[in-house]
């Protein structure tokens, strides 16, 4: 009989693309406003290294977010994100479009999200995770609730988990 860890390991070994939300995952969900009304967000550099380590193992990455902030575009370009989509509310269908482009199946996709607008895509991917501080509706349906909170290196925790399960398999 397979244990939960065996099931997780088998799912993670199939991953070829990791997609993430931004606010509440790559950031802590907070917004900083300057006196001039400019919005700032804080990203964790460890998450960027996680993307790089996955890329070195042949795993592509993507960002699908409802936000339309230029900051996210700049961060995504700096991280050399393979698939960067801003202002998308139907994340599930966007993920399916990416699968066609990459010639992979949804079961080859991992997603990390934190809020109710991520539920559709969470239900469709091969493996889903959330930050520890995600909303309960998300935490109740993901394959794994990670130990870190959004903006605190949770993507890196997720990428390390995937890489550890890949072992020497490429």
How would you describe the overall organization of this protein?
- With 170 residues, the protein is α/β, with parallel strands linked by helices.
- It has a single domain, classed as 3-Layer(aba) Sandwich (Rossmann fold).
- The protein is built from 7 helices and 8 strands.
- Strands 5-4-1-6-7-8 form a 6-stranded parallel beta sheet, sandwiched between helices. It has a two-stranded antiparallel sheet with strand order 2-3.
- Helix 1 (4-13) crosses helix 7 (154-166).
- The longest helix is centred in the C-terminal third of the chain and has 13 residues, at 154-166.
Strand order of the largest sheet: 5-4-1-6-7-8
Largest sheet properties = 6 strands, parallel
CATH architecture annotation: 3-Layer(aba) Sandwich
CATH class: Alpha Beta
Could you please say which CATH topology applies here? Rossmann fold
Write the layout of secondary structure elements.
Elements: H1 4-13, E1 17-20, E2 32-33, E3 39-40, H2 45-56, E4 60-64, H3 70-78, E5 83-85, H4 91-102, E6 109-112, H5 119-122, E7 127-130, H6 136-139, E8 144-145, H7 154-166
Parallel strand pairs: 1-4, 1-6, 4-5, 6-7, 7-8
Antiparallel strand pairs: 2-3
Helix pairs in contact: 1-7, 2-7
Summed up, what is this model?
With 170 residues, this protein is an alpha/beta fold. It is 38% helix and 15% strand. It has helices spanning 4-13, 45-56, 70-78, 91-102, 119-122, 136-139, 154-166; strands at 17-20, 32-33, 39-40, 60-64, 83-85, 109-112, 127-130, 144-145.
């Amino acid at each position: 009989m397979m244990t939960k860890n065996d099931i997780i390991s088998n799912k993670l070994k199939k991953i070829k693309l990791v997609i993430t939300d931004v606010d509440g995952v790559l950031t802590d969900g907070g917004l900083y406003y300057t006196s001039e009304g400019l919005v700032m967000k804080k990203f964790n550099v460890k998450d960027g290294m996680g993307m790089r380590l996955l890329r070195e193992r042949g795993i592509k990455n993507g960002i699908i977010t409802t936000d339309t902030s230029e900051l996210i575009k700049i961060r995504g370009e700096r991280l050399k994100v393979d698939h960067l989509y801003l202002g998308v509310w139907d994340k599930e269908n966007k993920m399916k479009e990416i699968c066609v482009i990459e010639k992979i199946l949804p079961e080859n996709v991992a997603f990390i999200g934190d809020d109710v607008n991520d539920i559709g895509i969470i239900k469709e991917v091969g493996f889903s995770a959330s930050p520890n501080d995600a909303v309960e509706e998300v935490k109740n349906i993901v394959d794994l609730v990670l130990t870190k909170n959004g903006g605190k290196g949770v993507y890196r925790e997720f990428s390390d988990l995937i890489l550890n399960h890949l072992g020497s398999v490429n």
